[in-house]
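User: Could you walk me through two proteins back to back? I'd like the raw sequence and the structure tokens for each, with a short line separating them so I can tell where one ends and the next begins.

Assistant: Of course. Protein one, sequence then structure:
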Amino acid sequence: MADYDPDNIFAKILREEIPSTRVFEDEETLAFMDIMPRADGHLLVIPKTPCRNVLDATPEQLAAVMRTVQKMAHAVKTAFNADGVTIQQFNEAAGGQEVFHLHFHVLPRHEGESMRPPGSMGDFDLIAQHAEKIKSVL
């Protein structure tokens, strides 16, 4: 497995070198809005410590991230009056991973509505509104 790249986009978000729309953070994790949302309220949860993915994460990193994933899943389900929640996580390029810092996607879902296709930039004003909606239920 390759080494962790401290210049990946999520590491830069953690260092606040590039902007993000933060929703929640604690000592170990950060949750922020995805800029290419596949559903309204789509957010990401990452550890604040370096690891590429599940394959090299410590049990402590995974436990911290999963606590926040669960908290965010409840929050987006409530904030968007969703019927369910999709949680996605990818490992290595062959597994679909594009950013090599452990991250989980949390997406509120509504019965009969498909996720939007990947790769389309979202409306930043709308993303900010969605972040406020999530924060209001936390």
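----
Protein two, same layout:
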Amino acid sequence: MTGISPTLLKRGDLAPDFEALDCRGQRIALADYRGKKKVVLFFFPRAFTPACTLEVRNFRDNHVRITNAGAELIGVSVDKSEKNCRFAEAEGLQFRLIGDESRVISEKYGVVWPVLRIDRRATFVIDQKGIIEEVIHHEVQVYRHLEDVLERLGAETP
């Protein structure tokens, strides 16, 4: 598995580039945001599960705060794109979701659980230069991802 990190990436690491189709069928590449805006890239285990639904709703309800703070929000799970699209539609998501069924993106970021082969609940705040400036990893306290992202971005309180 050359070029794939076996452990979760950390602050100061260069965020691995990726290119994929989001659930709307639109091309998305991390490199497109370089020099323009920060990226909040969050990985979640499975669409339609209780904890993941709560986490995604938290991001959905605060999406404007994240974009107003100058960041693009992107969600990734190892679900098929079709399932993520149904999830996005059911939850009324305005941000982009990627189905990483092949686990290429997830393995680059070191978020795949070895035995379960699903994503850890991990969020990366990536700066405009492509450097990871924060790694948030709370498996159980799903609300903490949003709180930590907003704090890191210095997002305004509503």
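The domain at 19-25+36-153 is CATH 3.40.30.10 (Glutaredoxin).

Let me know if you want the two compared in more detail.
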